[in-house]
């Protein structure tokens, strides 16, 4: 999937992903190729995406020197994403999409 097609499909949405029949995480696709990722635990990481050599690569605030590059494919059931940094490691599939933002709790607060 090209960067233009990926942007058209994802912008303004929150996509929920699964792996092997289990919930994996969700990503909110914002303006200007900005994103917000969560493993569905209320902890969110902000980042951005860009295209490199036909892949969609994500950089997150907690690990700016380590882009995570994926190949995306559109199927009748939604997106499929293959992690290309280690192709044997992860293949995700879209299980739901929403126009609503994700639930993010913010920084940990201690007593």
Provide the descriptors you would attach to this structure in a database record.
mainly beta, Lipocalin, 7% helix, 1 helix, 111 residues
Named CATH topology: Lipocalin
The CATH class: Mainly Beta
Beta-strand level of the residues, as a percent range? over 45%
Can you list the strand order of the major beta sheet? Answer: 1-2-3-4-5-6-7-8
Structural class: mainly beta
Main sheet specs: 8 strands, antiparallel, barrel
Helix content: under 10%
Mean pLDDT: 91
Order of helices and strands: HEEEEEEEE
Integer count of domains: 1
- Total helices: the number is 1
Radius of gyration: 14 Å
Q: What's the count of strands? A: 8
CATH architectural name = Beta Barrel
Q: Uncertain runs with pLDDT below 50, 5 residues or more? A: none
Distance between the termini: 47 Å
Assign an overall shape: globular
Task: Kindly describe this structure.
The chain has 111 residues and is mainly beta. The protein has one domain: Lipocalin (Beta Barrel), CATH 2.40.128. 7% of the residues lie in helices and 50% in strands. It is built from one helix and eight strands. The chain has an eight-stranded antiparallel beta barrel with strand order 1-2-3-4-5-6-7-8. The longest helix is centred in the N-terminal third of the chain and has 8 residues. The model has no long low-confidence stretch (mean pLDDT 91).
Chart the SSEs and their pairings:
Blueprint: H1 3-10, E1 14-19, E2 22-29, E3 34-38, E4 44-52, E5 55-60, E6 68-75, E7 78-83, E8 91-98
Antiparallel strand pairs: 1-2, 1-8, 2-3, 3-4, 4-5, 5-6, 6-7, 7-8
